[in-house]
């Protein structure tokens, strides 16, 4: 009995969005910068994972030198990845979203990897030990500067609010 396309799409979606227990050595979590069309995406690699862009055959002395160049040049951590055929037209990756990329052995080409997993529910992923600290968001507490920035565009208080404030000050 043949499966319906809806069921197949759902199964593909579940496999691509499942949180793995651990990442393979040639996998990294990246942030999507922009969709370039034709199932190609420009992504950035966190600085923590920069060593994954250095070919394994490179000598140790040269690895350190290349790593320093990668860490100082922001554009060096940006590269293209592709969406595999089985995910196309089933899963969308939004700009600013995160995904897991499996890097190719040959890093000299323009496309350096393939998307193997997509972060849909960020909260589940941030709990994992392999989630890069660079991508963690600190939402505990208020940021005074951003609060003042928000108040800059707020409506001025009404006459009733001003009189209530004056009464509260006099007591």
TrEMBL record:
Span list, region Disordered: 147-171
Residues of the S1-like domain: 76-118
Keywords: RNA-binding
Stretches with biased composition (Acidic residues): 158-171
Gene3D superfamilies in the cross-refs: Nucleic acid-binding proteins (2.40.50.140)
A molecular function GO annotation: translation initiation factor activity
GO cellular component: nucleus
Family: Belongs to the EIF1AD family.
Protein's name according to its UniProt entry: S1-like domain-containing protein
């Amino acid at each position: 009995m043949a499966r319906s396309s809806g069921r197949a799409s759902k199964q593909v979606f579940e496999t691509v969005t499942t949180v793995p227990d651990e990442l393979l050595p040639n996998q990294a979590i990246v942030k999507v910068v922009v969709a370039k069309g034709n199932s190609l995406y420009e992504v950035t690699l966190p600085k923590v994972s920069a060593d994954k862009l250095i070919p394994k055959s490179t000598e140790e002395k040269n690895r350190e030198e290349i790593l320093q160049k990668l860490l100082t040049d922001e554009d060096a951590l940006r590269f293209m990845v592709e969406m595999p055929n089985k995910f196309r037209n089933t899963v969308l990756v939004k700009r600013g979203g995160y995904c897991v990329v499996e890097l190719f052995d040959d890093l000299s080409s323009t496309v350096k990897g393939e998307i193997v997993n997509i972060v849909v529910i960020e909260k589940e992923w941030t709990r994992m030990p392999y989630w890069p600290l660079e991508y963690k968001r600190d939402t505990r507490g208020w940021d005074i500067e951003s609060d003042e920035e928000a108040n800059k565009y707020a409506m001025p208080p009404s006459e009733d609010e001003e009189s209530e404030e004056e009464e509260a000050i006099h007591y």
